[in-house]
Structures are given as C-alpha cells and as structure tokens.
Amino acid sequence: MGKTLNTAYLLLLPLAVAGWNLGLPAAAGLLLLGLAWRWAVTAAGLGRKSRGAEICLEAISASHFVEKVRWCLDRLGLDYTERRAGGTLGAVFLGRTVPRMTFRSGAVTSRIGNSSHILRYLWGRYGHQADAAFLEPTAEAVALEKRLDHYGVDLQVWIYTHLLPNRKLTLHAWGMHDPAVPLWQRWLLPVVFPLAALMVRRGFRISPASYQKSRQRIGELLAELDQTIGPDAGFLLGGESPSYVDFTFAALSSLWAQPEGFALGRSAAAIPSADQTPEGMAMDQAEWSRGYPNVVALIERLYRDYRAPATPSRSS
Ligand SMILES: N[C@@H](CCC(=O)N[C@@H](CS)C(=O)NCC(=O)O)C(=O)O
C-alpha cells in the first residue's frame, strides 16, 4: 500500500508542478521528498517478519495455463493465495502474462512467469518429497509438455476466434462478473475493450487462416493422444499414476472440454455456459468430444480422481 501511494505521488508530481506553477527549487524539493518517502517505505520493511501465505499465484478468471499451475500447487497441498486480475489488462498495460508466481525465498520475494518454468521451480523446491514425484521433468515429460503448451496456444487462437466477436461473452471471460477481480478493473474492462481486443487479435494473429490451422493442429494432436490413451483412459506417459503432463493436458483442454471441477469450482463462472456458447465453438466442441472419446475419458478421470489436493494443505 505504501509503495502504491508513493508511486501515485511520483506520477502526479509533474501535474502538481505544472498546475501550481512551481519553480525548479520547489519541484526538486517535492521530488526529493517522494524519493525519501520511497526509501522510508523500503527501510520500514527491512527485518519485518512477513505475514500471510508464502506463495501468491497471479491469475485471470479463465486461464487454462493458470489452471495447469494451480492444479500442481493443489496436488502438492501448498497453502497459497490467488490474485486475480481482469483478463488482458496485465498483458496489454504491463506486458506480463499469467500464471505468474510470487514466493518468499529466504529474506526476499521472488517471482517467476511462464507455467513450465514455474513447474521446474516447484520440482526443484519440493521434488525431494514423496508426493511431488508427479512433477519429475524427465526428457519425455518435458518434450510432451512443450507440444502441449503449443496446443494451449492453438486453443487460445481457437477460443478467441469464437469469443471476440461477442463483446459480452469476452468481457465475462475476462472476469467482468468475477468478484475476485478488483472492482476498478471490472469497470475498466469495458472501457478498454476495443484496444484489448485489437491487441489480442494482433498478438495471436487471429484470422480465418490461423483459425483453420490451429483447429487442424488441435485435431491432429487429439487424434494422436486418443490412440496413446486407449480405451482404458491410461496416462499419457504410461504407468499407474498421472504426472504433471497429464494435469497439463487436462488443464489446457478445459477450454473446450469444460470438465466439472475446473479450478475446483473457484473460477467456473468465466467460461461461457452451454446455452451461451457461440454456435461454431459448440460445433467444434461436439466434434472433438465425439471424435476423441479416450481423450474425454482421461480428462474426466483426471478431474474426478486427481484434481483435489493429494495431501492436506501445508504451508510452503
Ligand atoms: N507460455 C505462457 C502462456 C501464458 C498465457 O498465454 N497466458 C495468458 C492467459 S491463458 C495471459 O497471460 N493473458 C494475458 C492476460 O490476460 O493478462 C505460460 O505457459 O504461462
């Protein structure tokens, strides 16, 4: 809070200087005051014991990449807080993507973005514990995760092609009705919608051709995995228990498969309900559900049997 107030002071300073016609000595004095205030805020924090959860997951309401990390945090039974922002606001105005994880590391606070890097950190920190074996980044796991992350991007092109023409649905997906998103951001979303939609179209190069290409790649991957999984809904890397790659696949697929238990029910409202789904989107969903029954069975199995925390909540 102290830092936010100080930043606001420093940003507003030029307006005050111009508005009150202050001269150079007064302007320099006010600037020094702001910098001293900033230092005082930092100094007051030194040596102070931090409170609250050690891990904070920065998120938006409907993000399949956030769900990938959230799932692994939940499986580890870690105590964390989730801070949800309005969709695209962070990317458009701050240049950051979600998931992003902030955590205490010794006396300092550290931060990592990008889901696969976050999972590598969790493996490094918790991998020695028996219940973290699912996070092991074997060469096979990492190679498949990379392909799945590309699938996640194809799904972004797919969903935005269907959602962006519908302002109401897009704003809903960006968290306009999500009480966990700060109110000022929920007010801001409709105002910046044209700019945000333009940036998303540009960022993902949304066009009829890119949609067709993404849709085709999604279908090809689903067909291949449907064969690997087989009729018994076996795990992607074989074996008796799922790995983070299975959780990644189910989490990313949640955009189209819409399984029960997404985010353990904490964020369900942001995905369009069946009666609001645009027609083309519903047709693709029906085609994939019908065409790849082993995939659907695995996603359902993973959400039903493995989405809940494996161990009681513990602090990190
Ligand atoms: N490669 C990144 C992709 C993350 C990504 O695309 N995140 C989207 C949400 S799914 C995002 O940050 N959107 C910007 C925003 O809504 O602020 C990862 O694996 O974390």
List the helices and strands and how they pair.
Blueprint: H1 2-19, H2 24-45, E1 55-60, H3 64-76, E2 80-85, H4 89-94, E3 100-105, E4 108-113, H5 115-126, H6 139-163, H7 167-173, H8 183-203, H9 208-229, H10 244-257, H11 279-291, H12 293-306
Parallel strand pairs: 1-2
Antiparallel strand pairs: 1-3, 3-4
Glutathione is lined by residues 60, 63-65, 87-91, 97-99, 114-116, 149.
* Low-confidence runs: none
Overall pLDDT level: 93
Helical amount: 55-70%
**Could you say which structural class the secondary elements and strand pairing correspond to?**
alpha+beta
Morphology: globular
CATH class of the largest domain: Mainly Alpha
* Order of strands, widest sheet: 2-1-3-4
Distance between the termini: 25 Å
CATH architectural grouping of the largest domain: Up-down Bundle
In N-to-C order, the SSE pattern is HHEHEHEEHHHHHHHH
Strand content: 5-15%
How many helices? The count is 12
Largest sheet: 4 strands, mixed
Number of domains: 2
Report the radius of gyration as a whole number of Å.
Answer: 22 Å
Number of strands: 4
CATH topology of the largest domain: Glutathione S-transferase Yfyf (Class Pi), Chain A, domain 2
Structure, described:
It is built from twelve helices and four strands; from the N terminus they run H-H-E-H-E-H-E-E-H-H-H-H-H-H-H-H. By secondary structure, it is an alpha+beta fold. It has two domains: 55-134, Glutaredoxin (3-Layer(aba) Sandwich); 135-306, Glutathione S-transferase Yfyf (Class Pi), Chain A, domain 2, CATH 1.20.1050. The protein has a four-stranded mixed β-sheet, with helices on one face. The protein is globular. The mean pLDDT is 93. The structure holds glutathione. Glutathione binds at residues 60, 63-65, 87-91, 97-99, 114-116, 149.
